[in-house]
């Protein structure tokens, strides 16, 4: 199912064609679907590679950004992150940049997973502490001359007020979609509480931008890798902490305890969590049920804390 206007359809036949044309050394490797997100469609290539194809030409900018910056960030981070190994070029067969990365073993942490499943986490507090450690490391990396401009400028690193128009529209839409099941008025109060504060005083840092559970990989029950840096940007760190409302309460508590942050920072982070949840439910309601389910879990956590 397509999620966006002007979406490019990608299947195994097309991927084989692109591999043959641009990197024939991999053209005969085993190939299979490896999932799809809001930005990319992915295919596992052999045992060691992952090919990622943007859903639209516009979204290929995120892959170019990852290819440029991830090799520079990786040495400063304690967890594995994607390593680009090939830059696919636009062609008549596929009009956008695409990329091949090294495969990273692991599974998404799943609060509903049974003890025998790959995504099972026995120590959610440990995962929350691991994630906090990663965020600290990323935010401490030198900017290396980069600044909040062009592809490294994204709304979540900016100010809340500039987003009020579309967030308010999304909340109004949520009243129609989930208003009988969730207290959307309380969500709006959280959003307004963030808007009432002064802009973030914190200096700009590197931001992953989208640290939801589907972008985390666990191995043996502990956080092992962070993936999908398509939202990589430079900005204020407040929005990065919004990830806590995607996690079960033991992980949230451990993350909170790992940071000595003031109440205004958490209030802004909570407002960002509302923005992401409301816009996700509104935009993807009819097209991406799995993503809507993630956003609804975030809403449940926001309303329970």
Automatic annotation (TrEMBL):
Residues 33-272 form the Aminoglycoside phosphotransferase domain. This is Aminoglycoside phosphotransferase (APT) family kinase protein. Signal peptide: none annotated. GO terms for molecular function: kinase activity. InterPro entries: AGP_Transferase, Aminoglycoside_PTrfase, Kinase-like_dom_sf. It holds the Pfam family APH. It comes from Actinoplanes italicus. It comes from the Bacteria. Keywords: Kinase, Transferase.
């Amino acid at each position: 199912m397509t999620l966006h206007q002007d979406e490019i359809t990608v299947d195994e036949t097309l991927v084989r064609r692109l591999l043959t044309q641009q990197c024939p050394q991999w053209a005969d490797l085993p190939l299979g679907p490896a999932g799809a997100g809001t930005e990319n469609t992915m295919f596992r290539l052999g045992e060691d590679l992952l090919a990622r194809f943007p859903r639209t030409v516009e979204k290929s900018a995120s892959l170019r950004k990852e290819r440029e910056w991830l090799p520079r960030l990786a040495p400063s981070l304690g967890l594995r992150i994607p390593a680009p190994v090939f830059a696919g070029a636009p062609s008549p067969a596929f009009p956008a940049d695409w990329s091949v990365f090294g495969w990273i073993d692991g599974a998404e942490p799943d609060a509903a997973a049974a003890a025998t499943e790959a995504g099972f986490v026995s120590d959610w507090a440990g995962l929350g502490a691991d994630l906090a450690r990663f965020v600290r490391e990323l935010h401490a990396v030198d900017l290396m001359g980069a600044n909040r401009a062009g592809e490294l400028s994204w709304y979540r690193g900016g100010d809340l007020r500039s987003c009020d128009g579309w967030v308010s529209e999304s909340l109004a839409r949520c009243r129609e979609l989930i208003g009988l099941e969730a207290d959307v008025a309380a969500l709006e109060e959280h959003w307004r509480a963030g808007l009432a504060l002064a802009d973030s005083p914190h200096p700009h840092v590197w931001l992953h931008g989208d640290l939801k559970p589907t972008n985390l990989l666990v191995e043996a029950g502990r956080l092992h890798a962070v993936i999908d840096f398509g939202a990589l940007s430079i900005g204020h760190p407040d929005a990065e902490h919004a990830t806590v409302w995607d996690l079960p309460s033991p992980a949230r508590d451990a993350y909170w305890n790992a940071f000595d942050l003031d109440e205004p920072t958490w209030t802004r982070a909570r407002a960002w969590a509302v923005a992401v949840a409301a816009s996700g439910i509104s935009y993807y309601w009819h097209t991406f049920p799995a993503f809507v389910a993630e956003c609804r879990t975030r809403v449940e956590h926001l309303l329970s804390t």
